[in-house]
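Raw record, unedited: Transcriptional regulator
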Amino acid sequence: MLQHSSLDQVFHALADPTRRAMVERLTSGPVSVSELAAPFAMSLSAVGQHIQLLESSGLVRTAKVGRVRSVELVPAALASAEDWFTRHRSRWEQRLDALGALLEEPEENEVPTPPRRKR
């Protein structure tokens, strides 16, 4: 089986709704950890754990300037997930197109069924 450890880490990181919301927020640009934490009803420590997992998966990077730690999205990290979806979507579209074509072809030896008589 192929090794997809970085892809697995990205999907694991995005499996949590809180982390997906954080990634969504970061699409608007970098923010401080406290700004990122504001909409969530959890401790700053819990937010830090989410950020740490996002950072270990490569989806975000953090930087500390003075006392403020900022979080920034790394868009290239999403490329592996996007590639995976593209490959699989293409394969399924081909399969569904083939099935559709098969279902549209009339049977050559098909004998039409006569209509039923009403009693």
